[in-house]
Amino acid sequence: MIMSVRFVFSEHVTRYFFHEQHPFNPKRLLLTVDLMQAFHLLTEEQLLPPQPASDDELALVHNRSYIDLIKKCSGNDYTPDDLAACGLDTEDTPPFPHMHDAAALIAGGTVQAVQHVANRDCEHAANLAGGLHHALTGKASGFCVYNDASVGIAWLRKHFPDMRILYIDTDAHHGDGVQWAFYDDPAVCTVSIHETGRYLFPGTGDYSERGDGQGYGFTINVPLDAFTEDDSYIETLEAVLPEVVDKVQPDFVISQHGCDAHRFDPLTHLATSMRIYRHIPRLIHRLAHTYCDGRWVALGGGGYDIWRVVPRAWTLLWAEMNDHDLSCSPVPAAWREKWQKESPVPLPPTLYDPVDQWKPIPRRAEITEKNRRTVERALIGVPKVAQKNRGKG
Q1: Is the pTM value of this prediction over 0.85?
Q2: How far apart are CA 66 and CA 76, in angstroms?
Q3: Which pLDDT band holds residue 59 (cuts at 50, 70, 90)?
Q4: How does the average pLDDT of the chain come out, rounded?
Q5: What's the CA gap between 112 and 297, in Å, rounded?
Q6: Active-site residue 22, yes or no?
Q7: Exposure string for 332-343, b = 16+ CB within 10 A, e = fewer
Q8: Which of 37, 77, 197, 306 lies 20 to 30 A from 186 at CA?
Q9: For the segment 295-340, what is each residue's pLDDT rounded down to a tens digit?
Q10: What is the CA radius of gyration of the chain?
C-alpha cells in the first residue's frame, strides 16, 4: 500500500542555525510542526527522519573542493582566506559550528523525499527545512550552504535520466542557484516567480535569462514589481504555471515554498496575504496529478516573519498535500496560548488575513499592468515538448 504523503523532519534540522540575531531562524520549523499537530494534520507514520547526504550526493552539484572547505570552516581551524574562498565571509552566510553536518542533513532530507516519490513509496513528500536555493556549486550564498533542491534534482537526473523535471520556485527571492545549476539542461525546467531584482538579493532573475545551449527556453523568470498584491500574484500564477507545464510535459515536480512574499515579511517588498499560500500549493497539486501522476516534492525556503506567516503558510501547504481543506479555520487557541508568551507580535487568530482591514497599496493598477507585460515577455519562447504516452508509474 502506498502511503500518500511523507514529511521529512527531525528536530536535528534546527541545528542549521547561524546565530541569535540572524533572520534565518529554524525555530519557524518547530512552530510550523506544532501548528500542524494542533490541526491534527501530521501523524507519526508520515514522519521520515532525514539522513545526511553523502559527499558523493553533494558532489552531484557542488565542487569537491567546496565541500572540503565547508567541512574545514565547520570547526575552528580555518582562515579568513578559507571563508572568502567558499562565500562564508559575509553577514548573510557566516560560518557556524558543525555547519557541514547541519547542511548535509537538510540536503539528505531532500534526496530522501525525492527517492521516496520517485520509487513510488509515496505520492508526495515535503522537506520544509529544505529549499536552500541560493547556494552555488562552489560558493555559499544568501543563507544557503548546500543547495538541497539542486542536489535532489541531480539525484533524479542520475537515477531516472528519462524523467523531465519541473522546478517551481515561489520564494520572493530569485531561485538563482537552481537556475544556474541546470541552465543548459533541457530535461530540467526552472520557473521562478519572485520580486524584481532591482531592489532585492540576489539581483538576478530577469525574464531575459532563458537558459543556454540545449537548455535555452527551459528557464522561465517572472520578476514581479514591488508591492504586488494577491490578485495580481494569483493572476500571474494562473497565467504562467498551466501554460509552462502543458508545454514542457514534466514527469516530476519539485517546488520551493519560500513564504517571504507576504506583506509582513521584513526582508522583501511584496504585499501578498495568506491567500496566495493556499492558492500556490493547490495549483501545483492539481498540475502534479494531471501531468506527473502525482509525483511532487515540496520544499521550504525563505520566510522571516516566523510567528505570523511561516507556520500558517506551511500548514496550508501540508494540508493541501494531504487533501485537507482548512477553509476559514481559526488558528487553534492552544497553539496561540503556547507561543504567544515568546512572540514579539500578536499571533493571528485565523489562518487567513483580514485584508479588507489593510491600508491599500498605491499604484495597484500600474503594478498589475506591469506584471501582465512581464508575464507576456517571460513566456516567449518556452519550447513545446512532445507529449509522452503516460501510464501509471
Answers
A1: yes
A2: 17
A3: very high
A4: 96
A5: 10
A6: no
A7: beebbeebeeee
A8: 197
A9: 999 999 999 999 999 999 999 999 999 999 998 789 999 999 999 9
A10: 20
Per-residue pLDDT of 265-283, as tens digits, reads 999 999 999 999 999 999 9
Query: What is the rounded distance in angstroms from the CA atom of residue 66 to the CA atom of residue 64?
Result: 5
Contact criterion met (CB below 8 Å) for 197 and 268 = no
Of 77, 66, 61, nearest to 100 by C-alpha is 66
Is beta strand 252-256 parallel, antiparallel or unpaired with respect to 296-299?
parallel
Q: Are the C-beta atoms of 219 and 358 separated by less than 8 Å?
A: no
> Pick the residue with more confidence: 192 or 362?
192
Q: Return the SS3 of 295.
A: coil
Closest CA to 70 of 143, 127, 140, 159: 140
CA–centroid distance for 32 within its chain: 15
Question: 393 pLDDT exceeds 60?
Answer: no
Written as nine digits, the cell of 309 is: 506567516
Rounded CA separation 223/225 (Å) = 7
What is the rounded end-to-end Cα distance, in angstroms, of the chain? 14
**C-alpha distances in angstroms, 284 versus 106, 167, 238?**
23, 11, 10
Cis bond upstream, residue 223 (ω within 30): no
Nearest C-alpha neighbor of 249 from the set 287, 207, 216, 282: 287
Catalytic residue among 62, 100, 124, 134: 134
Closest-CA residue to 300 (of 14, 37, 41): 14
Q: Which cell numbers hold the place of 185? A: 539542461
Q: How many residues does the chain have?
A: 393
All cell numbers assigned to 35:
501548528
Specify burial of residue 197 (Cβ count, 10 A radius: 0-12, 13-18, 19+). Answer: middle
Are the C-beta atoms of residues 382 and 242 closer than 8 Å to each other?
no
CA distances from 130 to 23, 256, 320 (A): 16, 8, 18
